[in-house]
Amino acid sequence: MQALGMEEPAASLTPLYLRQQEIKAAMNGGILGDKIKQAYDRIAAGRDAVLLEGLAGLSTDAELAEASYRIAEAVDARVMMVVAYRNNLPWQNLVSAAKTFGQRFLGLVISQVPQKKVDVMRGEAISQLSREKIRVLGILPEDRTLMGVSVAEIAEALQARTLCCQERMTEVVENLMIGAMTPDSGADYFSRKDNKAAIVRGERPDMQLAALATSTRCLILTGGVEPAGQMLTWAEENGVPVLLTEKDTLSTVAGVEQAFVQARFRQQGKLEKLDKALEQGLDFLSLSRGLGLDLAS
């Protein structure tokens, strides 16, 4: 809301909180469309366009696709379907979901495409969809930053104590590494990934120092063992937050992985990355024409 300069309260922008299994029941009772229409009418006043997030799972669940069509119909919306890249995308399912929306459907966007496969994916998508007269509106490359999680969110997930560098808690973590036994030296091992959270047992100062010598966004010490003073001093000099958790290593890994799953779009750095990705990969001209907007104005 801050980034978009929106003054509406959060309750107006998220009028319903429903679990996946509750969506169909609400749709059948007419509640979902009515509630969203009321919220939409309040927000749309005085605006050229409103972006409404749809329901997930359209390509695998015909009922959800139908529910999405009713929502689009209720607010007279055009539809852009976004799917995450994977090997062997279910093209026929995507076509079926797209056809559910009829003339309301604008096109398909494929996100999280590995950089090396962007051109191949674009060619395959056009080949698979052009015969069905479905437009490919964008191929968005994968960016680890957009999937990252802040150090503060990791600390919250682990209920960890922050020992230093509170001012760096907003840094975005893109990768995770575990300082376990390895045939390589600690420095060689930790240098394999940048912008990482390094999980190391509290009684392994050698691995802790090795992690700090590489591109590390935070150091997580497990087992509740306080670090040596020298290690903490080095962390402060390098601006790397040190988190201390009572959890064992396996539980800590599970907690950090869950934080990645629940990562949200809250960091300023993500906004800049997203803006660049959209500029490079999204066909804004076709999208604006489909919405009846004039970009030149």
List keywords for this structure.
297 residues; alpha/beta; five-stranded mixed sheet; elongated
User: Given the structure, what is the number of helices?
Assistant: 13
Strand order of the biggest β-sheet: 5-10-9-8-7
Question: Strand percentage, roughly?
Answer: 15-25%
CATH topology grouping of the largest domain: Udp-n-acetylmuramoylalanyl-d-glutamate--2,6- Diaminopimelate Ligase, Chain: A, domain 1
Measured between the Cα atoms of the first and last residue, the distance is 24 Å
How many beta-strand elements?
10
Q: What's the story with the biggest beta sheet?
A: 5 strands, mixed
Mean pLDDT: 83
**Structural class based on helices, strands and sheet pairing:** alpha/beta
Secondary-structure element string? HHHHEHEHEEHEEEHEHEHEHHH
Principal-axes shape call: elongated
- Helix percent band: 40-55%
Rg of Cα set: 23 Å
Which homologous superfamily in CATH is the superfamily of the largest domain? HprK N-terminal domain-like
Record the SSE blueprint:
Blueprint: H1 10-13, H2 20-28, H3 31-44, H4 62-74, E1 79-84, H5 91-100, E2 105-113, H6 118-129, E3 136-141, E4 149-150, H7 151-158, E5 161-164, E6 172-173, E7 175-178, H8 186-190, E8 196-201, H9 205-212, E9 216-222, H10 229-238, E10 242-244, H11 249-261, H12 268-281, H13 284-291
Parallel strand pairs: 1-2, 2-3, 7-8, 8-9, 9-10
Antiparallel strand pairs: 4-6, 5-10
